[in-house]
Amino acid sequence: MTFQPITHLRHVDLAVPDFETQRAFYGTTWGLTEVAGDSGLAFFAAEGSPEQYVVRIRKDERKRMDLVAFGAVSPEAVDELAVRLGRAGVQLVHEPRALDTPGGGYGIRFFDPDGRVVEVSADVAVRDHRKIEEREAIPVRLSHCVVNSQDPEGLRDFYIEHLGFRLTDTLYSTHMGDLMYFLRCSPLHHSFAIARGPHVSLHHASFEMRGVEEYMRGTGRALRAGTRLTWGPGRHLAGDNTFSYFHDPHGNTVEYTTELAVLEEDLWHPGRHDVDDPVTQDQWGTADPMSESVAKEQFNDPDVLFEAPPV
What we know:
Blueprint: E1 6-16, H1 19-29, E2 33-38, E3 41-45, E4 55-59, E5 64-72, H2 75-87, E6 92-98, E7 106-111, E8 117-122, E9 141-149, H3 152-163, E10 166-173, E11 177-184, E12 192-196, E13 201-208, H4 212-224, E14 228-235, E15 242-247, E16 253-257, E17 271-274, H5 278-281, H6 292-296
Parallel strand pairs: 1-4, 5-8, 9-12, 10-17, 13-16
Antiparallel strand pairs: 1-5, 2-3, 3-4, 6-7, 7-8, 9-13, 10-11, 11-12, 14-15, 15-16
């Protein structure tokens, strides 16, 4: 039986030089709730999510993605993952142990082949959360995370082999080859995706809204606050989800989305979608056409690699 330890995406952790500006953006403009913090550290939850937090902000002289975190089915799965990674020669940041972040739990951290830090944890306490009301334009949950890689094929194979992700769809160009791999760990179309980029970095973090009305209201709120819209509003073909891409104050791309496709996994066959077809990028035709300049908006700055964050 295939080893599939991962249940869902938990959180994305970012480090930035201007901590207070970043903190204000995620807590006010973006609509998350600050639930914990320390000197130079802030944790943000989504009101509709049982996760203790979906974004962590840390003050550092260097901008970076500290880590991406996934949930595991059990502590035993975390232990088995550690054994499997060890046999494969994967470099661990730390062995399975009790976590001292909000909600506790039991987890492991390691470097993926690109050098980014990955955390996998189980038994994290569930946060009290609530139903997001009609026209309440704040994120329900963290939807998915996409990363840039110079070797997307190798990274795709790593997450499939070692973490049990499944390939859902591929974006490709007849001139440039495969450009993005969508990976799932549940019936949701994707929780993680890998884009071909000029360097290793965060491509974007996406936040699910209650519905299209709330998605559009959130897009409008961000625009009125002066947040830079880099692409959208529109609706992708792969995943069938809406998109509005913005830059946070440090140039990380964050997305409002909704209505991500839920698959019948037993019946699903991975598709291939040509990015040169405008419908692939935006079924509605409301966003600017995909171009080299639009694509560059999600390249981000080169990340800090094979160096674990201090917390």
